[in-house]
From TrEMBL, chain A:
Organism of origin: Sinosuthora webbiana
Similarity comment text for this entry: Belongs to the small GTPase superfamily. Rab family.
Name of the protein: Ras-related protein Rab-4
Single annotated GO MF: GTP binding
Source lineage: Eukaryota, Metazoa, Chordata, Craniata, Vertebrata
Compartments where found: Cell membrane; Early endosome membrane
From TrEMBL, chain B:
Key words, A-Z: Coiled coil, Phosphoprotein
Identification of the protein by name: EVI5L protein
PROSITE patterns (alphabetical): TBC_RABGAP
Lineage, highest ranks first: Eukaryota, Metazoa, Chordata, Craniata, Vertebrata
Organism: Cephalopterus ornatus (Amazonian umbrellabird)
Keyword Coiled coil set for record: yes
Residue numbers spanned by region Disordered: 1-54, 72-98
The organism's place on the tree of life at top rank: Eukaryota
Pfam families: RabGAP-TBC (PF00566)
Amino acid sequence: QSSDFLFKFLVIGNAGTGKSCLLHQFIEKKFKDDSNHTIGVEFGSKIINVGGKYVKLQIWDTAGQERFRSVTRSYYRGAAGALLVYDITSRETYNALTNWLTDARMLASQNIVIILCGNKKDLDADREVTFLEASRFAQENELMFLETSALTGENVEEAFVQCARKILNKIESGELDPERMGSGIQYGDAALRQLRSPRRAQAQSAQECGC
Amino acid sequence: VLLRVFLPRQVSPGPPSPAMASPAASPDSSSHEGPASAASAPAGSPASDSENLSPDELELLAKLEEQNRLLEADSKSMRSMNGSRRNSGSSLVSSSSASSNLSHLEEDTWILWGRIVNEWDEWRKKKEKLLKELIRKGIPHHFRAIVWQLLSSATELPVKQQYSELLKMSSPCEKLIRRDIARTYPEHEFFKGQDSLGQEVLFNVMKAYSLVDREVGYCQGSAFIVGLLLMQMPEEEAFCVFVRLMQQYRLRELFKPSMAELGLCIYQFEFLLQEQLPELNVHFRSQSFLTSMYASSWFLTLFLTTFPLPVATRVFDIFMYEGLEIVFRVGLALLQLNQAELVQLDMEGMSQYFQKVIPHQFDSCPDKLILRAFQVKYNPKKMKRLEKEYAAIKNKEMEEQIEIKRLRTENRLLKQRIETLEK
């Protein structure tokens, strides 16, 4: 399937909040309760239809433990969107949001579109963070906000789609420029085809770059 | 010529042998101070090609050689029958039982390993090279528990006496550990279910370790290593082996909060990549495919989260004797074997390839992987030099950071002064 755009997305947040499960539910439409905890980074991608446009999301799922930030920080650059995930049954994961937010805005870009996801919505009985409180936080920090459940699938697709839609809107309004370096946005197939062809001719120059 | 199959092409004089390292101070004290850098100190290898072997040992080895050939033929035919067969056994020896010929050899292998364990000190001192070759062929499943303990010198660790006391204490890392317990080998029978013995002992060992080493506490990734140990041995023993691995095998440095050692490993690995696979290196760079993206978990979990356990355990056997070097070797072997495919792929294709294809390439032929790993060029001296280089780079970065901070503060103070003066 071809796509009009490619967006780089991050999934960030504390350990055990369900980042990998959200990604898996989004891509496979299934809850995966028997996967290893993430070491470093993992990937997924999916093409979605947003208002008639096909957008390929290239999603980077990161390890959540604090000390892994030294490793995962280098993957933030050029991300157009992010799911910032906490666990509604754990205040601790909610309290860490400010740090994650600072990292995302500093290391990805000031314009990164972030949707806050209060995951494990299905565990309402164990809730430690209210909807109201989190939505206020989202408002103050200019984030979109949804409560999600990777278990039931509720609002999972929506989270990714809403984030992508907002990025598309920003492109249409001219607020975001796909042509700008590091925007985390690429044009679809034409650009992809270019990427797939071996780049031996450019080998020399790429080596000199050293970045 | 015996055991030629797994001899590296360039026989280097004694690669680093972590377990040979000097007996450390008591674990609880040294765990706070950091391990001796013994893991990277090359142990002199006195073994010559003609080690003192008795005639029946020679005979056994000849049989093993034969077995090796049979297994290779066996795995080849299996591969042609069924492309991606997954091995179910835990070691090559125990998983291949088809012909009676093999089971005889299996018996011989047991006799040999029984002798090795009984005469451990002698083998360690006088038949080091041969022992190394045998380990590269895979330690028989039933001997792993004891051999891993012997290799890591974990048999009489004083910290073992504290273990039951540690379990009664509570650790600040408990919550973190809990979160990962059910997410460590979730598909493995031993760890399935909330009340399973596996989950309970895994939690115990991780907690106990976080108490004897408060600086490291608990780090994601390490539970896979402990989990593997627990599949082979009781929790006290697994705890002791893990303490040794942390102290003597660079693992503690890898899992410290700064994870600085991981940066070093990636730096060293990148150098080897650039040197030995320049074309692939250029391709990775042109796709912004960072080394840490695929290699971080290799170092942090010693391939336990990459390969199925029968294959990963073979790598782990070698790690127990030869240290982290095997991770560099296997990693580079993987890239060499897959270079032609990888250069055709873009960033996304490559990441999928690393996640889906590479893990199962050796399910039916782990020997092939090990063989290729020992054909990789690896120069311990060069690695040492790179370590110094990396330290210098990091130092410089830190100095710059300090300078920047200083200037920022100065700047702020000057601004304040201007403001007060303007008022």
